[in-house]
Amino acid sequence: MNRSATPPLRVAFVVHRMQVAGAEMLIRAMIHQLRGRIVPTVFCLDAVGPLGEELLREGVEVVCFQRRPGRDWGVSRRLAAAIRQRAIDIVHAHQYTPFFYSALAMPLCCFRPQLILTEHGRHYPDRVSPLRRAVNRLVLDRLADAVTACCRFSAQGLSRVDGFAAARIEVIENGIALERYGPPADRTLAKHAAGLDPHRQYLLHVARHHPVKDQATLLRAFAQAAPALPHVDLLLAGDGPLRAELESLAVELRIAPRVQFLGIRHDIPNLMQAADCFILTSLSEAASLTLLEAMASELPVIATAVGGNPELVRHEHEGLLFPRQDVAACAAAICRLFHNPPLAARLGAAGRQRVAERFLLRRTVAAYYNLYCRLRGRRCHPLAPEKL
């Protein structure tokens, strides 16, 4: 069946809010790349968010339910009414709470759209109540037509912690747009363009300033490594509730002159071209898009051996992994890469190759679209990634 003979699927994406984060950026990419194949609606439980505002300007329908604190049972009734009004074919809920309200809405619909739960990150520490686990196993798992996760770590959390049946969880790996990232033709010029000193080398960290990202370990490790690396400075791109505390810690550790807090940056691909190494010190991660972006930029990477990180970065192949909160091991990895340029170059090149072979955004989008068609019984040809 050719594409023109197949009416587009009416797909509702359900999220907390369309913030600038991995799941929400995936939704935006799917809406853009599947134009003509789906009619999208974005249902936000709590707030529209900056990406939601952007989609509204593009003419995409974004609906916010203004969820009240605690359990707001009215959200499921309003969500069911919105699904009925738009004759939605697929309800794709990203993360547990959007899925919870979507699942409760299903019996209230006059027809039965297919419901998908996609798990992205996991909480740290990862614990749920026995009641939630029982409800998931006995009720909510049965209301989902498909359960997916962005990496094996997230899939294991869904089954071992939340109680969803492991056998039915499908892993659809995250991906990035490889063409947006790559090594610079001239790193000196890239440093000039990013407002950095071309005579210095830079260790780059990109993440919100939040306890789970554990920038305190990064600062302490850099303080240990700094005397042996007088030519290296640390860049922290991002913002968050811990920024003032982290700035004070840099002063306390006497490394403030060599640490730059860059705040929110909208030129991350350019910043990665100007950097010499990338580091992520999180206590927990799922499938970090920022880590994939650094790999695609041919940066050697250092990351904690937690969550989905080892699924992206293989130790000694694309980067160096170390145990969470191990300051000495982190400092040793920093020194090793900056003291061994051939090793850094080899790991960086291998990282880009791994992204090209396995973690492409168009592959991720095609996998979700093919899942939609499979659930609806569509007799359409599978969408190959190269067709996007």
Structural summary, described in words:
The chain is built from 15 helices and 13 strands. The protein is an alpha/beta fold and 388 residues long. It starts with 8 loop residues before the first strand and ends in a 12-residue tail after the last helix.
Describe the protein's topology.
Layout: E1 9-17, H1 22-33, E2 38-47, H2 49-57, E3 61-64, H3 74-86, E4 90-94, H4 96-105, E5 114-119, H5 130-143, E6 146-149, H6 152-161, E7 169-171, H7 187-193, E8 201-206, H8 215-225, E9 232-237, H9 243-252, E10 259-263, H10 268-274, E11 277-280, H11 289-296, E12 301-304, H12 309-312, E13 319-322, H13 327-339, H14 341-358, H15 361-376
Parallel strand pairs: 1-2, 1-4, 2-3, 4-5, 5-6, 6-7, 8-9, 8-11, 9-10, 11-12, 12-13
Helix pairs in contact: 3-4, 7-10, 8-13, 11-14
List keywords for this structure.
single chain; 388 residues; Rossmann fold; 2 domains; 15 helices
Q: What is the overall pLDDT average?
A: 94
Instruction: Give me the Rg, rounded.
Output: 22 Å
Name of the CATH architecture of the largest domain: 3-Layer(aba) Sandwich
| Shape assignment | globular
Reported for the largest beta sheet, the result is: 7 strands, parallel
CATH topology of the largest domain, by name, is: Rossmann fold
In short, what is this structure?
It is built from 15 helices and 13 strands. The chain has helices at residues 22-33, 49-57, 74-86, 96-105, 130-143, 152-161, 187-193, 215-225, 243-252, 268-274, 289-296, 309-312, 327-339, 341-358, 361-376; strands at residues 9-17, 38-47, 61-64, 90-94, 114-119, 146-149, 169-171, 201-206, 232-237, 259-263, 277-280, 301-304, 319-322.
